Amino acid sequence: MTLRHAILGLLSKWDATGYDIKKEFDDFMSIFWHSHLSQIYPELNKLEAEELVTSRLVPQEGKPDRKVYSITNGGIDEITSWVGAPPDIPKIKDSFLMQVFFMDNISADDVIFQLKYYQGVRQKRLDEMKQTVQEAWESIVERQIMTPRLLMSSAVLRRGLEQEVQYIRWCEETIALVEACKSLWDTDTSPDSVLPFNDAKELMENYYNATLALENDEA
Amino acid sequence: MTLRHAILGLLSKWDATGYDIKKEFDDFMSIFWHSHLSQIYPELNKLEAEELVTSRLVPQEGKPDRKVYSITNGGIDEITSWVGAPPDIPKIKDSFLMQVFFMDNISADDVIFQLKYYQGVRQKRLDEMKQTVQEAWESIVERQIMTPRLLMSSAVLRRGLEQEVQYIRWCEETIALVEACKSLWDTDTSPDSVLPFNDAKELMENYYNATLALENDEA
DNA sequence: AAGCCCATGTAAGACGTTACATGATTGT
DNA sequence: ACAATCATGTAACGTCTTACATGGGCTT
């Protein structure tokens, strides 16, 4: 039940058609949300039936009519109370991390290939986001206004960027780790061997210590 | 179609019941996956019908019978090829970031309250994960073995921890930002005012420059 | 006495994805 | 010529969540 809030939130900013909403999702809001037109259109109908939004048809030449939606007072109430409501505990589904978790089933070289490929995917996203940040800042400077709305969207943009930067960095670190521990994949002969541990002992000790040392109270 | 891979991946490590699988999801795997028993049981039945897993009943005293599943060769093939397959582009749904995006609808104090609350939620998760990392390392030291399996799960654990640490840090930074820009919420009188920008100009310039300076090629 | 843990499921409904359907205009 | 963009939707299917159902044993 959050698609409705994504839509109502957007309509609290500007009037829009279902098509416009989809574009906004794919563009700026893709940092935290996504949806298909085939889900947006029925949801808009529901919202209209509940009188949280209203619509009017705007004819165009050579193009289909635009069905432009506006938020009602009821809609404003709904989005405002949702924004102030206790946030959900995050329900993460990261299928790539799951693949990594099970990559002991493939060769070290294949692991590195997968990590490099995914790093590239994330880099592309990061490049697009940097573009968006650039444009957002230029538009603020040009229009010479600062508002709570722009402030909060700046914070969200930054979070999106940070996320990409840090995932990319993790990919790099993990590639280095696997590279350094390639020998573990060779010695799958003796299942109870002690040797594999000694090979990687120092390295893993450092890795775990570094992990436990990760702290949130530094600058 | 990824729940089946979560299950097959687990069964490629140990035999388990549906109930065991659920616990593993909620524990170690919660970094990247979650599911309900009511979805796991039917999926196990499907996997058995497709002969990717087999089951046997293990009677117990005073408790219901355990239906223990084992992976078949077909199941191994399926999970291996999935792990080596091109990763999906990430489909993020972060309803808290969405709330933040629309928080221009509530007061600066309420924004700070929400951010602090969420920071606490994430801190709790982080503390639990640190516990898990500690235990994982102790078990490695105790058993004196290192394997690809343990290596990959260490990397995934680290990613989970990093994610929490960085989200918490972002909450802190954003609280500071909103605190510094509280005045923006007061001056909602004149909609086209130039003043609000000048108030926050330097601060925002720094913020955007810092955002654009975020780089992935540092240590 | 109340509620959680073990252990299995079914059923109904909400939410999300992919495919299908239409049709003019604009760009490569 | 072919694909993309604008703009609306429906239908079928797949996935996920919530509620219901059972029942002994253990803890507070």
UniProtKB/TrEMBL annotation, chains A, B:
It comes from Sporosarcina luteola. Residues 92-178 form the Transcription regulator PadR C-terminal domain. Transmembrane segments: none annotated. It comes from the Bacteria. Residues 7-79 form the Transcription regulator PadR N-terminal domain. The lineage of its organism: Bacteria, Bacillati, Bacillota, Bacilli, Bacillales. Pfam families: PadR, Vir_act_alpha_C. This is Transcriptional regulator.
